[in-house]
Amino acid sequence: MKCFGSTIIDQVAHVVMKRPDKRNSMIAEFWDELPELVKEIDSNAKARVIVISSTGPHFTSGLDLSLFSDLTNSGSLTEYERNIQAQSNFYNEVKRLQLTFSALEACRLPVLVAIQGGCIGGGLDLITACDLRYCTKDAFFTLFETNLALTADVGTFPRLAKLIPEGFVKEMAYTGKQISAEDAKRFGVVNEVFDNHEQMLSCVLSIANEIASKAPMAVHGCKKAINFSRDHSTSDTLDYVALWNAGHFKIEEVQEAMIAQKEKRAAKFVDLPKKQ
Hints:
Number of helices: 11
CATH architecture of the largest domain: Alpha-Beta Complex
Distance between the termini: 24 Å
Shape: globular
Oligomer: single chain
CATH class of the largest domain: Alpha Beta
Structural class: alpha/beta
Number of domains: 2
Radius of gyration: 20 Å
């Protein structure tokens, strides 16, 4: 893969953006490789948790502007034909890009992300689709699209507006200014801030290992219920959780968890089934 490397150790898949010299910009290959990688790990039950991090001084500089030139490259079409098709092509391309980050949300596994330096534009779209977010103290966050006369459209608004106060989202969007790691923590964009990249990765992988030690079906159920709750009423969510447990509750897993705690050992849980 051009944009990502990955390893799987102790049921934790570590996905790493590997173009630090280009500030991990989101080139055309990025949008295909990330969902492909996530779906492969999830569908084949290769791990119980996914951690996303990057290399270099910045997490990502966001969407590579070459995508816009690719979008307007219409080959042999006349100018008239290009003008007629332009808006429809743009809409279809944005919908395709949106699916890349929605794959993180749709993934059965918890997705943790470790952020250093700049998390710009599309970087916000990426991290808001993850379950848990961590950053270094030098990290900064920018809803940069406004600075380019664009309205962010790949996922930031519907997700960020459910994470932090609406007024803060609007301030980020209207001004396009940088938000510090301290403010990101204060408003709940990130779970924790660390002194440096090494310390952050060590802690995030430790958290991932702790999650991986739990019953995969229970953790999957938590992700489903929490995401459903975010988008539905309390009444609907209570019914959803009851139905989920009615279909997925396994007394054997509960017994194994209790016995393992009593015997002070790691529990042995069944992995998620592979997807057909």
